[in-house]
Specification:
2 copies of one chain form a homodimer.
Chain A (H helix, E strand, L loop, with lengths): L2 H8 L7 E6 L15 H4 L3 H7 L2 E7 L9 H8 L11 H8 L9 E10 L5 E3 L7 H14 L2 E2 L2 E7 L4 E7 L30 H21 L7 E9 L6 H5 L3 E4 L3 H9 L3 E2 L6 H11 L5 E6 L1 H8 L2 H18 L6 E5 L16 E6 L13 H4 L5 E4 L3 H8 L9
Parallel strand pairs in A: 1-11, 1-12, 2-14, 9-10, 9-11
Antiparallel strand pairs in A: 2-13, 3-4, 3-7, 3-8, 5-6, 6-7, 12-13
Chain lengths: 407, 407
């Protein structure tokens, strides 16, 4: 029996509030040589300390042992979706990261400008990393000239430097397609094809991509060094059962960065816009407390400084989050989870597979006799090390949302 | 590959004795506000302390993260059966709880007397909670008048107040059926139907239920307020591979309460009757030591007082169990497991999903440097947190019952 089906079968009507507080990439590693304590351990966190005295701790494997997730799988797991079952293409993630308003069925591609010689051979895959402003001008040009192809809308949005995103919107489109990218210089741009040659929708989409190239390449002629472009990760936004349908909870996302708003929107959460700082996010939570059952509040900077390998800044980011917590704690929901979507260890300057610590607080969570919320402490918690996709189920259990299984 | 098949393939002939000591619902939670220590932590347990100095500890997820099991799934998992694969209907569990001797294929229903008006509308679903004695008289009446329907035996047994159980025994019966219960007052009793309309056996069973109603209702006419009855959870006792076939061990159950004897009987264990106290149960174990390979010894009171939310009584129940342990320890089997079938935290007054602590003791179990057997200690144990269905496999491994896998 499918476990999700069992959870659905046991689900009762909820009457509780929950909040998921994500310190992106908060997990880190201690190393004898370079950092004896993790940023979370070294930070001064009186408010998290207070919170954890009513909570249970553990660590979560984001996807599977040894697998490092991107933000997409990392967050889908936190939202209770199996990140292997619900895969989201890179084009879709990129589009969400640029704040594009995607719909189910939209096909999105990561694109970047490149340099072509007069025989159409790729001589620079990144067009000499043109300035962002040039990229924006070129995208404006393309967007203005190519609004539709047949009955499909074409949406183009510039990213940083040579990067942009193309979205095709219309009926009967489907990915994934093979990359229109030779992945090295010295070759011409290969034609994008349906990965599954039996899918008529994917074949239609591949034709659309070819037609887009036919119309776009002439517009870029002479725009050296950006006289061509490559497209990768071409796939449609999958149908994902909405958070509300799956858990019978009305959910709001309070995030600053477009990527996380986009991921929340993928599962049908409401985006509450306009916040710039974690204090503002928590204030917004207080203001909207009565309007939603579930709040996803996202804090970016722990990940950002982890990616920079900036230990001191990551530690301070934790302290900034902690200092703002009392605002949130003015209205404690019945269940709170504090965690990350993955670890971003400073010594690695990037995401990793190391299980992130998690703290679940509710009147019935139990307390593991731990006085702080840290990686080392969480190793001793009653939640053990478990797959991140089960965290939301544990939150539901703490909210008494499940009936007893069997007599 | 199915893991059970792999275990079977690797299984060697056993030559060891094992005992599974279940303190029902022993797991609990610590909370800063109400109970700093769990009952297991607060109890004085010199004998468990001694035992655990030769053992490995961990915690067990009874079914899946966040899922609270009834006694049925809780014990099936302890017996090494996947509680999601082997589901037992509520009627069957109820019948086992009343000590009825069920056989594979028997269809059992939970029933209760209700009040009907002269149009057959249910006006009280519990017939004013008639005294148990009235229920027994009415059940005797029904049992005397309806012994067989066609070629099927009908067995009726009274429970407490308005509750009773009906069992249909015959060839070619099968559940599950829909409830003959409107689940609220103001409606008539719906006809029970096969859940799977393609099952000829279930359709035959549904006819049997209708025929039972046709014969029984006239017998109750005028017996106000109990002039009708409702039936729920109508299903057959599933075929479960027997403990002996599965593990090549002859197993005995030494329990006091009918429910647990029934669950043991479901997997073909021998019931050793007549004990009333845990001391008597352990004495019986000593007396039967040479007659079985595996002993399941069930202690109820940790669960009972957890359900009552009676912390002090639960702590004392642990101490009562501990005080009797030296009797058991006169003949130590090669492998002992001490655990619960789930947690029953006092603050929740009911079963929960919190992983129960487990202690496995054998000459090769290893010792985790833990001096006591507690929830918090078990968080640090070498067994980690694992699904309860694997505990029996670990016991087998400790008894050297598995060959090496691969070369």
């Amino acid at each position: 029996m499918n476990l999700d089906a069992l959870y659905s079968e046991l689900q009762l009507k909820p009457s509780t509030k929950m909040a998921l507080l994500v310190m992106d990439g908060v997990g880190d590693i201690a190393t004898k040589a370079t950092q004896y304590m993790t940023p979370l351990e070294a930070a001064c966190t009186p408010n998290l300390d207070a919170l954890c005295k009513n909570g249970a701790q553990g660590r979560m494997t984001p996807v599977a042992p040894g697998i490092t997730p991107g933000s997409g799988p990392g967050h889908l797991a936190l939202f209770g979706y199996d990140p292997i079952e619900f895969q989201v293409g890179r084009g879709v993630i990129e589009a969400l990261g640029l704040g594009m308003d995607l719909r189910a069925g939209d096909v999105a591609a990561r694109a970047n400008f490149c340099t072509l010689d007069n025989k159409g051979i790729v001589t620079d895959r990144r067009a000499g990393r043109i300035p962002t402003q040039v990229c924006e001008e070129l995208c404006d040009l393309l967007a203005k000239k190519i609004k539709k192809i047949d009955d499909c809308e074409v949406l183009i949005k510039a990213g940083k430097e040579h990067r942009f995103v193309v979205v095709f919107r219309g009926k009967g489109l489907e990915g994934p397609l093979t990359d229109a990218d030779p992945h090295r210089e010295g070759l011409s741009i290969p034609e994008s094809k349906a990965v599954d040659p039996k899918s008529a929708k994917a074949k239609k989409t591949a034709k659309l991509v070819s037609a887009f190239y036919e119309q776009a390449l002439p517009l870029l002629a002479g725009k050296n060094p950006a006289n061509g472009f490559l497209m990768r990760g071409i796939a449609h936004q999958p149908e994902i059962p909405s958070f509300q349908d799956r858990y019978a909870m009305k959910a709001a996302c309070i995030a600053v960065y477009p990527m996380y708003k986009g991921l929340a929107q993928l599962v049908g959460m409401n985006k509450l816009e306009g916040c710039q700082t974690i204090s503002e996010q928590f204030e917004r939570y207080l203001a909207e407390y009565n309007n939603y059952d579930f709040f996803f509040i996202h804090f970016k900077y722990t990940d950002k400084y982890g990616e920079d390998g900036n230990y001191e800044a990551k530690r301070k980011a934790v302290e900034e989050f902690d200092a703002a917590l009392p605002i949130f704690m003015k209205k404690m929901p019945e269940v709170v989870a504090v965690t990350g979507d993955h670890s971003t260890p400073c010594p690695m300057k990037g995401h990793s597979w190391h299980p992130q610590p998690v703290l679940i607080v509710s009147p019935i969570s139990g307390w593991d006799k731990l006085d702080r919320f840290t990686e080392t402490g969480a190793n001793h918690g009653s939640l053990g090390i478990f797959e991140a996709k089960y965290m939301l189920r544990l939150m539901q259990a703490n909210a008494r949302q499940f009936d007893k299984f069997g007599a």
